[in-house]
Design goal:
The chain is mostly helical. The protein is built from 16 helices and 2 strands. The chain has a two-stranded antiparallel sheet. It has helices spanning 18-32, 41-48, 52-55, 57-79, 82-101, 106-134, 140-166, 173-192, 206-226, 233-260, 273-303, 308-336, 339-356, 365-392, 399-434, 439-467; strands spanning 471-472, 486-487. α15 runs antiparallel to α16 (439-467). The protein is globular, with a radius of gyration of 21 Å.
Length: 489
């Protein structure tokens, strides 16, 4: 799938284009909702008379929809203008938010979350594609630092924000507060956002759309079932296998369409080594981040007895540190390249997760805060350079496909991280309870083992970080084969 990109005049050096600023703001608002309901699970169970497994679906359905919709965004963004894509994405998100706020039942709330996610799925690929077109290569690290605020910090701040809001009202307040903010951002964007590319009419292979939805959606659904009761573990494994099989069919179909037509997701992005490495590192990083975001509230509330507000306040400094460091990390990347940032960041990520394997009934809260802050700082030092390197390794006609694949695998990694840590924790806890161990020590042991598994997986990021180049050659559009050549590696 190729698209004629209308080049914009070069932006002034050192200045973030207005269109990027507005898209970052809008993306932050919509992505925040992916994790904002994590702290509201007990309230939902009480208000809507549902089980914990059912309540978890308000987050799982969001990830499931994102994974199913994002593969289509590469084609969608080439069919419409920037303003049209922005208006459609934010309009759908607003509709889903309003529906969730007034939902009379759990089923309607779940539908509202699905509609929310459909709008959210468009925003990140739109932001990334726009940034790569309008921002000069030498400024991308600094600008990507601001993008990190939306892509990475918003999910990290979700539980903290929800803890503050839940202290003041019911779970509906989470949507009531977001609705006017999202509406104001939408109106501002429609006034200020310029079109940065010309739409191009292209065909879409609906077989690819169906197989992608079944494959990526099924994989996320199956992974989510692994974290539930033992009775659904076998079903989850079966759906994961079916999802992987559907993804294999999708890959074969895309390889064929690359030769004869227009693929839904151009897999030639994976032929660029730096993009592939970046994709792997980001996926493992999101796995670790979402896994820890699930475990920490469980530890702080179920084991240590903190309220949602207290839990939110405890994890808020780490999320804020990640956001505040994003622009600084971007500037350092522009000056020094990736390795002085990504390698220490990956090591910090592993050390933080190793530290969490020592949680106890008496661990001082300042140690929990410090470990969480170290985790977030490590991720901040990693995500910004890796996002920039990965997208910069692609030629312009693959930007939309690269951002779509990035977003899809983030959702799969998030679902896998959530399912993995919950499954490990539940299995260990169940075994100890069967042996006569008290509930609190059994849960604590399960959490420590889950953190250990996450730490072991995150060690892969150190290996990948050592293989990344410092920088990517400028002007990759001239020659796909030259797009991935490192400078100063």
């Amino acid at each position: 799938m190729t698209a004629a990109i209308q080049e914009r005049p070069a932006v002034q050096a050192g200045r973030i284009p207005t269109v990027v600023r507005l898209l970052v703001l809008a993306t932050f608002v919509v992505i925040l909702n992916e994790t904002i309901l994590i702290n509201a699970i007990p309230r939902l169970m009480e208000s809507l008379h549902i089980t914990q497994q059912s309540a978890q679906w308000v987050s799982t359905a969001f990830m499931l929809t994102m994974a199913a919709v994002i593969p289509v965004t590469g084609w969608f963004l080439q069919r419409v203008t920037t303003r049209q894509a922005y208006a459609i994405a934010m309009g759908v998100f607003l509709a889903g938010t309003a529906l969730s706020a007034v939902a009379p039942s759990f089923e309607v709330l779940l539908l509202g979350r699905v509609v929310q996610a459909a709008g959210t799925a468009v925003m990140m690929p739109l932001l990334m594609t726009t940034l790569m077109i309008v921002v000069p290569e030498q400024d991308r690290g600094r600008v990507m630092g601001n993008v990190t605020l939306a892509i990475s910090v918003a999910p990290a701040l979700g539980p903290a924000v929800s803890g503050l809001i839940l202290q003041a009202g019911s779970w509906r307040m989470l949507f009531v507060v977001v609705l006017p903010i999202a509406a104001a951002v939408t109106l501002l964007g429609l006034r200020k956002v310029d079109n940065i590319s010309e739409p191009q009419v292209s065909a879409i292979d609906w077989l690819s759309v169906s197989v992608a939805a079944l494959g990526f959606g099924g994989l996320v659904y199956g992974l989510s079932l692994l974290g539930e009761t033992d009775s659904r573990f076998g079903l989850g494994i079966g759906i994961v296998i079916a999802g992987v099989a559907a993804i294999a069919v999708f890959v074969i179909r895309q390889l064929k369409l690359q030769r004869t037509g227009t693929p839904l997701m151009d897999l030639r992005t994976l032929g660029h080594r730096t993009y592939g490495l970046s994709l792997a590192l980001i996926s493992v990083g999101f796995l670790a981040m979402l896994g820890s975001m699930i475990l920490l509230p469980l530890y702080l509330q179920n084991v240590r007895g903190l309220s949602p507000l207290e839990t939110g306040l405890l994890v808020m400094p780490g999320g804020l540190a990640m956001g505040l460091l994003g622009p600084t990390v971007g500037k350092l990347f522009d000056r020094f390249g990736s390795r002085p940032l990504v390698l220490p960041g990956s090591i910090g990520l592993v050390l933080a997760l190793c530290g969490f394997t020592q949680v106890s009934m008496t661990m001082p809260y300042w140690q929990v805060l410090g470990l969480h802050a170290l985790l977030m700082v490590g991720l901040a030092a990693t995500f910004t350079p890796v996002f920039t390197l990965g997208m910069g390794a692609l030629p312009p006609h693959l930007y939309s496909h690269g951002s779509s694949m990035l977003g899809t695998l983030q959702q799969v990694a998030a679902a896998f991280g959530t399912a993995l840590v919950v499954t490990v924790m539940s299995a260990r806890t169940g075994d100890l309870l069967a042996d006569g161990v008290a509930t609190a020590p059994a849960e604590l042991s399960g959490m420590k083992l889950a953190f250990g598994v996450a730490a072991a997986l995150s060690a892969v990021t150190i290996i990948i970080a050592a293989k990344l180049p410092r920088r990517i050659a400028a002007a990759p559009a001239l020659d796909d084969s030259a797009a991935d050549q490192p400078i100063g590696s």
